[in-house]
């Protein structure tokens, strides 16, 4: 007999805790936005400099923060539904669509900043874009499962 057994419930619970920690971390980073931009501008070699660049970076940070909060909220609700056994429901598909959209939005925001200001943002854009594609594939799979479940429910 195993004293410590990992199961589906523990995985979902752990992931929900990580999402809450990510939300808290995002909140702290959002509140510290001006300080983070100032630090970035003073410690990294940007292709351009000046107050306008700082304003652009701060606006980018706040826009990405809004996307992060919306994405994490939808991820948390998605995990709650899984825990409640509501897997193949339209709300799950909608949450995955929103999560994918947030990742795609972050990719679109970070790409030009990476090209014109600071190259590492390109890598963030590529990672966010890749995540958007992965989540979109999952969303499509869940959408198909919801349709199949609905058809099965109507035939019984």
Notes on the protein architecture:
With 156 residues, this protein is mainly alpha-helical. Helix content is 84%, strand content 0%. The chain is built from 5 helices and no strands. The chain has helices at residues 8-31, 33-43, 51-83, 90-116, 120-155. Helix 2 (33-43) crosses helix 3, helix 3 (51-83) runs antiparallel to helix 4 (90-116) and helix 4 packs antiparallel against helix 5. The longest helix has 36 residues, at 120-155. It is elongated. The model has no long low-confidence stretch (mean pLDDT 94).
Structural class: mainly alpha
Give the mean pLDDT: 94
- The geometry reads as elongated
Task: Count all strands and give the number.
Answer: 0
Helix-strand topology string: HHHHH
Describe the biggest sheet? Answer: none
Helical content (DSSP H or I, runs of 4+): over 70%
Termini, distance in Å? 40 Å
| Residue runs with pLDDT of under 50 for 5 or more positions | none
Percent of sequence in beta strands: under 5%
Tally of helical segments: 5
Radius of gyration: 19 Å
Notable characteristics:
5 helices, 156 residues, mainly alpha, 0% strand
Helix and strand topology:
Blueprint: H1 8-31, H2 33-43, H3 51-83, H4 90-116, H5 120-155
Summarize the structure.
This protein has 5 helices and no strands.
């Amino acid at each position: 007999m195993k004293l410590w057994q990992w199961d589906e419930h523990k995985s979902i619970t752990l992931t929900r805790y990580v999402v809450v920690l990510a939300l808290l971390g995002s909140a702290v980073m959002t509140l510290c936005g001006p300080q983070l931009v100032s630090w970035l501008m003073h410690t990294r070699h940007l292709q351009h400099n000046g107050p306008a660049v700082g304003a652009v970076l701060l606006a980018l940070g706040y826009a990405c923060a809004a996307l992060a909060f919306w994405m994490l909220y939808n991820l948390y609700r998605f995990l709650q539904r899984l825990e409640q056994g509501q897997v193949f429901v339209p709300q799950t598909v909608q949450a995955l669509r929103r999560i994918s959209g947030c990742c795609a939005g972050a990719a679109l925001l970070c790409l030009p900043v990476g090209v014109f200001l600071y190259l590492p943002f390109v890598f963030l854009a590529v990672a966010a874009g890749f995540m958007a594609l992965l989540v979109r594939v999952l969303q499509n799979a869940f959408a198909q499962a919801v349709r199949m479940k609905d058809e099965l429910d109507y035939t019984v």
